Amino acid sequence: MLVFSVPRFFFTTWVIVVSLQMHGYRSCIEKERKGLLELNAYVNSEFPYDWPNDTDSDCCQWDRVKCNFTTGSVVGLFLNSTYTVRPLLNLSLLYPFRELKTLNLDYFNSTGWFDNIHELKDLRNLKLLDLSGNMLSGPLPGLCQLKNLRELDLSRSEVIGRLPQCFSSLTKLEVLDISSNKFSGTSPSLISNLSSLQYLSLSDNEFEGVFSVELIANLSKLKVFKLSTRTSFLQIENKISLQPRFQLSVIELQYCNLETVPRFLQHQKDLRLINLSNNKLTRISPSWFLENYPRLQVLLLQNNSFTMLQFPRLLLNQSMQILDVSSNKFYQGLPESIVW
């Protein structure tokens, strides 16, 4: 058996080597390997990432690092959940990674804005930037230079003020999440320019005034829209002159002082999740949603002012998975027609 297994081993090895050569595989670039080690020493000196300080180690194989296997360039850094508290991140540590496309700093534990966020403008290939779960303060316009961004997550970061108008230039954005911050004023009009958006979350901020659905009416690719406020002064404009060009799968409108279902929802035929909880809905029965949205899987209507709950047996179809109508004002129990 040994006579045959040895040649097979060398043949397999030769095939792997030739395959890698044909695909132009290279190990990581030495300048970037050193840059990673400097970054590791700075951000996580107490509990460093498991990156060996060994010149023979290929940094493209390291945890939290993704490379382009043709060029060897680092294209992804996943520095999320870094628990050593640092007051600032020195952005010059990112300079070696010119081909970086994904930067994940979710719960990085940065306690303030980076040393100069404007420096991020040099990461021109960046497509995904996750700064969520940090305590960020200071100006945001530096992000407006990242023209190739597809996804931007600023959620849960204690950002105060208004969303910079220059964000309207980020026209390639497909995902924008600014939820759970302290953005204030009226809803940002700039979102009407972000024609590539598929996911938009403005939830859990301090927006006030009237939100005009026409701001998003022409976002034809939009699939998920979320809006809520911590104040009691936000309302959804119920009249709309434009029929929305989008077909949503998910709509969440919490704490929006809704007394009736917004009219634009009547044009939506593909909704799978509706969350209108924490409003003032009274003029419609929960059964209306099941009649109008046959593909609906999740319906959240808790903490409204519904008084009647009548669901014919046929409406409880197989698509419905979660129904929450708790904390309403029903004057009778669940109807017998409901079978769980």
TrEMBL record:
Pfam annotation, one family: LRR_14
Localization terms from the record: Cell membrane
Domain Leucine-rich repeat-containing N-terminal plant-type as annotated: residue spans: 31-68
Membrane-protein topology: Single-pass type I membrane protein
Top-level lineage group: Eukaryota
Keyword set includes Cytoplasm: no
Family as reported in the entry's similarity comment: Belongs to the RLP family.
PROSITE patterns: LRR
Main location: membrane
Keyword Flavoprotein tagged: no
UniProt KW keywords: Glycoprotein, Leucine-rich repeat, Membrane, Receptor, Repeat, Signal, Transmembrane, Transmembrane helix
Annotated protein name in UniProt: Uncharacterized protein
Domain spans labelled Disease resistance R13L4/SHOC-2-like LRR: 92-300
InterPro entries with a match to the protein in the record: Leu-rich_rpt (IPR001611), Leu-rich_rpt_typical-subtyp (IPR003591), LRR_dom_sf (IPR032675), LRR_N_plant-typ (IPR013210), LRR_R13L4/SHOC2-like (IPR055414), RLP_Defense_Trigger (IPR051502)
PANTHER family assigned: RECEPTOR-LIKE PROTEIN 14, RECEPTOR-LIKE PROTEIN 9A-RELATED
GO cellular component: plasma membrane
Signal peptide: 1-19
